[in-house]
C-alpha cells in the first residue's frame, strides 16, 4: 500500500486509456484483474488478522477484482466469504468468478463480518445505487443457507419483481458497513462519481479505500472524499502520467549564513476597511518565513516586528517588495478600488484575495505582466469566473488559463491550477478551517512563499500545505489567530 502524496490523479477515462495501453502490449484484462485482486488480498490480509472477511462483488470488473481477492485470501488461509449483487457481466469478471470455489451469497441475504470489502462498483459509476435492487436467489426457502451449501455451488439469480426479502443496495451496504470492525472500499466506495466527486448515492463512511493503479478525483473532491477514509494506492503494473497530482510536502529554502531580511523575502500587504484581516495575513507571512513584512494602511498593535506604513504610491514603489497581497478586508468602496488599481500598476508579484476578487474581471488580470496568484473561495470564484456545474478540477484549470494566473480554488478540497494545465489537489483539510480569517492567513502564507522567489505554482502549493498542516496541528476549535501562529510549527517541521 502506497501513500498518495505526489501521486498522479487520473479520471475514469484516463485510467481506462492507461489500462488499454498495457493491454495493447499483450497483457490480458484477466492478467490485470489478477494483479488487482492479488494486491487487494495482500492488503486485506495485513489488516484482517484472523478475522473473517466478507467481500461484496458487483457485476463488472470491480466485482471481478473482488472474486480474485477472495480466491487469493482463501489460498492464504484467511476465512473469507463472497456475496454477489448479480451475475458477472464481463468476460474477465466471469473468469474471476469461476476461479472462486467457495459459496456465493446474495447481497440481500449476506450476514455481516468483522472485515467488509466493497467491490460492488468502483470507478465509472453513472447512476445512483438506489436505481439498482438486489436480486434474490432462484431457490426455495427450504434450501440450505449460504454457509451450508457445498463448496462451489452457484446460485442462479432471479430478476423477478422485488420480494419481501429484497433490499436496496444502499441499505445493504450501510447495514454491513456499520456492523464491520473495518470497512474497505476497492477503488472507490460504491455510489460515488469518479471524476466529479459527486455522491450519486450516499455510501457508508469507509475506514480505508484502496485505489487501483492511480488516485482518482473522487478520492480528493468533496463530497465523495468524506466517504473514502484513509486512501492507499495499489500498484497493478499500469504506468500512469497526469498533469494533475496530489499535493506534496514542499521543499522550502532555509536561511544561510549570508541571509538577511530582504533575501528571505519582503511581503507588503494592503489594508482596507477591515484592518484585522490584513493583520492576519501579515502575521501569517511572518510566521511562514518571510524576512520583512510591511502593512500598508491603518493598523496598530502587535506584533512589533510588523512594519506599519501609511498607504501611498511611494510605499508601493519599493523595489524590494517580493510579493504584494491585496484583498483581505479591503472593502469595495472607492478607496478600495483606488488601492487595487495602484497595486495592479505597482509591478510586483501579486496575491489577490477576498474583496479584490470581486472588483476585477479575468481579462484585467490576464493583462498583467507580473506573476499573479488568485485565492478565491467558492462564492468569489463564481463571482469572478461564473457559475458552472462542471467539476472543480476543470473549473480551476479553465480559470487559470482564462486569467493567466495560478488559481487556488479554496475549500475542503482545495484545487490549485496553473495556466499551463498543471493541477495539484490537497488532501482533506480540517473542518475547523471553516471560521473567519483563515483565508486571510492563507494569502499571507502564500505571499511569504512568492516573496522567497518560488515559482508561482510552487508558492501556492507550499502555502496551502503549510496552512493545512498548521490546522491539523491545532486540532478542534481554533481561530484564525491561532492558525497564523501555528504556521511556525508547520514550517519548522520541514
From TrEMBL:
This is Bifunctional NAD(P)H-hydrate repair enzyme. Residues 244-494 form the YjeF C-terminal domain. The keyword NAD applies. It comes from Sphingomonas albertensis. Binds 1 potassium ion per subunit. Residues 131-150 are annotated as: Disordered. (6S)-NADPHX binds at residues 61-65, 122-128, 187, 277, 329, 377, 440. Keywords: ATP-binding, Isomerase, Lyase, Metal-binding, Multifunctional enzyme, NAD, NADP, Nucleotide-binding, Potassium. It catalyses: (6R)-NADHX = (6S)-NADHX; (6S)-NADPHX + ADP = AMP + phosphate + NADPH + H(+); (6S)-NADHX + ADP = AMP + phosphate + NADH + H(+); (6R)-NADPHX = (6S)-NADPHX. Its EC number is 4.2.1.136, 5.1.99.6. The keyword NADP applies. Residues 15-244 form the YjeF N-terminal domain. AMP binds at residues 410-414, 439. It comes from the Bacteria. K(+) binds at residues 62, 118, 190. Its cofactor is Mg(2+); K(+). Bifunctional enzyme that catalyzes the epimerization of the S- and R-forms of NAD(P)HX and the dehydration of the S-form of NAD(P)HX at the expense of ADP, which is converted to AMP. This allows the repair of both epimers of NAD(P)HX, a damaged form of NAD(P)H that is a result of enzymatic or heat-dependent hydration. Catalyzes the epimerization of the S- and R-forms of NAD(P)HX, a damaged form of NAD(P)H that is a result of enzymatic or heat-dependent hydration. This is a prerequisite for the S-specific NAD(P)H-hydrate dehydratase to allow the repair of both epimers of NAD(P)HX. In the N-terminal section; belongs to the NnrE/AIBP family. Belongs to the NnrE/AIBP family. Coiled coil: none annotated. Homotetramer.
